[in-house]
Task: structure prediction
Amino acid sequence: MTGKTVVVTGANSGIGRQTALALARAGSRVVITARDPAKGNEAVSDLRAKVGDDRVDLTVFDLGDLASVRAGAAQLLDMCDRIDVLVNNAGVVFTQRRESADGYEATFAVNHLGPFLLTTLLMDRITAGAPARIVNVASTAHSGARHGLDFDDLQCTRNYRGMQAYARSKLANIYFTTELARRLSGTGVTANCLHPGTVATGYGRDGDATGALALGLKISAPFFLTPEKGARTSVYLASADEVRTVSGKYFVKCKQRQPSKAAQDRVAAERLWQVSEELVRAT
Result:
């Protein structure tokens, strides 16, 4: 990875932080993104100390605010004359329904719309330096959306359930990857997604998860993977030579796997792209 530039979203903690650390240690320059400046700066200081040099930088923006995403993308373009790898890692889960700064359901906004907009804004820079890679952190939780996305209620205004909204957002990550890979065919840029495992990432610690969901996370925590282990597949897809030409696939434990039947719906993937373009254009 020497000489390459990598952008990792949501890398102030958890899987993203360990992904950034591994890729920086492999020789790349890494730019992490964070919503909170203090947490982002703490992560940069820690990563630089562990790597032993200053090849880790920070950009601060909020994936749940599309104006902030646009500002963040502009900063990244100013900072990076090339982007060899983009890892869309950041993600949230909310017990109670809440809306983003743009009025969209927050889980969908942070987990899908923000990364969708960021990727499209950086695309020219990524393709200009091809070969390049885009890695999207999805989840096996996508299988919970057994009937696919409800395009008549993408904002979950009816019967909101936190884990169901999360499952739909992770299904959206797979659809996004599928359609992105199709559109990038022939450019030298690949797009893949993954399930990192059930990882102790800190979900719910900021009050995002309450009630039964928070209790379930607390009880299950001792059985979760460490962030280091959870980052392995992200690092693999970002750097391994054997997947340099693989695109549009879903990986678990560094192995290609079939996602759920609903996740293999290419028509839905194309439709989500079109709807996502309309939603980000409206802000």
User: Anything to note?
Assistant: The radius of gyration is 17 Å.
